[in-house]
Fold each of these.
Amino acid sequence: MPEPAHALSRPPFRHYQFDSAYDEMFEAPGIPRPHYRALFQTLLDLPPEELRKSQQAADLSFLHQGITFTVYGNSEGTERVFPNDLLPRIIPHAEWRKIESGLTQRIAALNLFLEDIYHSGKILADGIVPKELVYSCRHFRREMRGLSVPRGIYVSICGTDLVRLPDGSFAVLEDNLRVPSGVSYMLANRKVLKKVFPTLFRDYGVCPVDHYAQALLATLRALSPPNSAARHEPTVVLLTPGVFNSAYFEHTFLAQQMGIELVEGRDLLVHDNLVYMRTTAGLRRVDVIYRRVDDDFIDPLCFQRDSGLGVPGLFNAYRAGNVGLANAIGTGVADDKAVYAYLPQIIRYYLGEDPILANVPTYMLTDPSQRNYVLEHLDQLVVKAVGESGGYGMLIGPQSTAEQREDFRRRIQAEPRNYIAQPTLSLSRAPCFLEGEAQARHVDLRPYILYGENMTLVPGGLTRVALRRGSLVVNSSQGGGSKDTWVLRA
Amino acid sequence: MHMNDYRETTMLSRVADSLYWMSRYLERAVHTARLIDVDLQLRLDQSPDAGSERWLGLLQALQVPVPEDGAIDAESLTHLLTLDRTNPSSIISCVAAARENLRQVREQCSSEMWEQLNRLFLQVKSTASSDSGLLDSYQFFRAVQDGAYLFQGVTDSTMSHGEGWHYIQLGRFVERTDAVARLIGAHFSRFPHPLDQAVESEEYLEWVALLKSCAAFQAYCKAHTAELRPLRVAEFLLLNPGFPHSVRFSVDMVHAALRAISDLTERKAEQPVRIAGRLRATLSFSQIDEIMASGANAFVDSIRWQCNQAHTAIHQIYFDYSVESALVA
């Protein structure tokens, strides 16, 4: 092991910077954490030219495979390659165990919460979560009241965003309970990294993630309606909004990996409350739909009327118990950012346990005193619209202009229920290979949780990277990238 | 029905439609590339003023309307047929349409297929944006043809030869039947040479160009030597059973694909199979002198008309059937 100071004077770490954020690789300047030592040494030994070549080869292979996402509001070149960073993010086994149990607990509680509010509403009657908060949520679906879903599971597929705070602990930033995306990049990144660092990968003892598609299929099959003729081999399809959707690559990828049909709304039809797909051999019954279409667009007869993406009559078929949907309709109410603030109480209420993973402190703007505090400190806080995702509709106080703050002040005063505020977090940083050297960038972590017959977490997830220097926003739509996440076996 | 058989045969109508059109567009792009490639070589051997009439014929054979200002020269014509996005039949439009169709069904094809078509598209696109003199060279047109041949090879060796593959075959050979028939019709109208006399001098090059436009020159020479007689050329391009660009070969493939699809889907697809079967019989039993006696044009028009009917019937039975009829079945 080289002397710390000496190591940092050598490429590729010559310009590596530290600040108050937790650094994933170094416990102190020049001293790598134990689980990063082997990677650190490899990077010191490897000529930067070699890495640069690998990066180019990886970029090209992503382009040729068409591993892209679509940027909205940009007509030319709407397909973009999702930037991939070559340096893996490494998570020791013990840390992963804690994440795993924390997320299992959280998803169990969220499902119980959804079942409760769409049935008897005990938690509301007991005053743990304010009624108004739930009923005023844009994603609350009255149509779901009293409707029983297969196995009582509302959220079967979840991608929860975690951040690591300066003290090294993980906290939950957002629950994505509607149609979380990104898992295909987790799998694609792994494939690339195995090619770039085969020996290092083997020596590290990394938990595999390749069985994700199989686990997803098993989860979806578990949602098959009891009355289906093909109970033992239900027909599962993936419903995509179509080729213009930002996650279209992922839809095709998952359908291919699972060996199921990728359908659009126009491929499906409902007759006598049964769902069929239109095939060259005639109509075929569909048992389970993994839908990547939002609630609003899924059935023009029931929700948004002008939607061309959905299937007329689908909701009635669902009501009749003739088709399984993943996720269920109306799950968005539980990832409303204002409901999020009550998660610790929700977990205690249903499970009688303390939350294993912390929440980020959240200011409720419907409360006058909290609102006043927030309005006075807009330049220090992050303000988020409660129903948005993907980094849209967000104000990052310290990086905002006076004009933007004024805009948000007006919006908050007009609709306080629509916003929450959180302290500006210092997300942890990890080395990324940029401009031919290692540079520190902020990262988060999105593990994927599956809940069918039982709960499954594939060890790993998508580590998203804010590629712009100093940026805290990791969303792909806002200039983010991703890197492979190595969860160690021991 | 056994569960495994069922899994084998599930194919969405939209997917079948996309595979079919992907294949048609790609075949169209290669055909255009081959025609321009041949034209570029012919241009070198002819006087500059011989061009414009041939170009009109080229536009007619490709069913591209003559530009409104009427001005066609070598450069603008090449651009129109190659990189002009406003022309839906240009090479770039066809390759982009093929790719877009495959992109919509990419979970149905092998990843090798997608990568190959995507690479071809990126190559054509980068030529379009580089604006270099690449178009003057045969290299670009050769690259398009090679890229498409490679795609075909990759398809044949990495995709199951199941229903989806048969739609790809169907698209390719429906398109080819139509394109080759059109080319023959246009050529025989322009060159009413005595049918059983060897062509000579200046015109010889035009007949070579016709054969080369169907990738058939070498195969023809093997069969009939380099002496070109219009009757033999017509016979070779229309009725040869073994040459992959002849009309008869293409129709045979259309028929075979339709039969296979009809078996796999267990649907009574009498109409398209019947149309293709009749077309096949016509080509198998016709004599070339009979055909030529009533005019090559009338014959190819009738073939194209029937081919179009088969296309419509395929569409109605597999892609766009009415729900009521399907529920009854």
Amino acid sequence: MIRVAAVGDIHMGLESQGLLRPAFDTLPDCADLLLLAGDLTRHGTPEEARVVAREVRGLAVPVVAVLGNHDHHDEQPGKVAALLEDAGVRVLEGEGTVVECAGTRVGVAGTKGFGGGFVGRSAGEFGEPLMKEFVRYSRRCADGLRAALEELDRQGCAIRVALTHFSPVADTLAGEPPEIYPFLGSYLLAEAIDTAGADLSVHGHAHAGTEHGMTAGGVRVRNVAQPVIRRAFNVYHLHAG
Amino acid sequence: MNEPAAPHPGENVEYRVAHLRDRLAAEELGELGVRAEMRAGAVVVTGTVPSAQCRETVLRTVHEELSGLSVHTDVVVAETATPDHAEELP
């Protein structure tokens, strides 16, 4: 049994230092790894990223993250990722990583993802260059996720988790205004997950959404945005095979 | 609390609510998770923010931006407790 802890949307600012560390220090008692589902900062500044880095530096479990839209706001996502990596966090974008947990190979594939909406109510790759690029960017994120999940399968991972910031399904957005669903996720992520296969999909971004959902292919989805789970993190027990 | 003044005749409250949301997103908060909606003649502001300081800033901004309007707020700070159980995913 693998114990996966996850939280997203912690939105740390300069006054946030120490808010989550006491709970994170208990992780070795209840989890084998910690997933951070993006929006770790408020504006994506290096100063805010340093707060996050200090909050997770030296934790006794591996930490794997994706960035969120807030982490891009200052237009320095590479710097944010580098500061987190320097603190020992594996930051994923269109790639995967393998974590050895009690003799089991656990693969985590990650992308921030993007919007576009869900089947029958989604944006199309048509018209103005900006509109086409919107959809193409979302498709590139989903393609990266699919390729990473497939690579983890080739690497013999017994358990694979898809980690995103944007949602792959509409289920976990329930509670948000339906009019903004296209800004909260894309079915392209779910299609990638169902095509490549995964044991669990974890995302954030939708603060007013709900925790539980499922892709059309039957993969369980969990929205771990901190305002949704109302804890420092949630823990999911996964069983190989 | 003083009785809120009625909006000026012809004033479009919807745009004031939209400007509030723009300001919450643009200023020091970068806050996109607070919802402000018109309901029965009042503005209802709800959401979860990451810290007590953020909550104070949101409420101060709301009262500045919506001065003179009837406003109800339910803005809470994100909880940081350790979970007391795990979810089994067989």
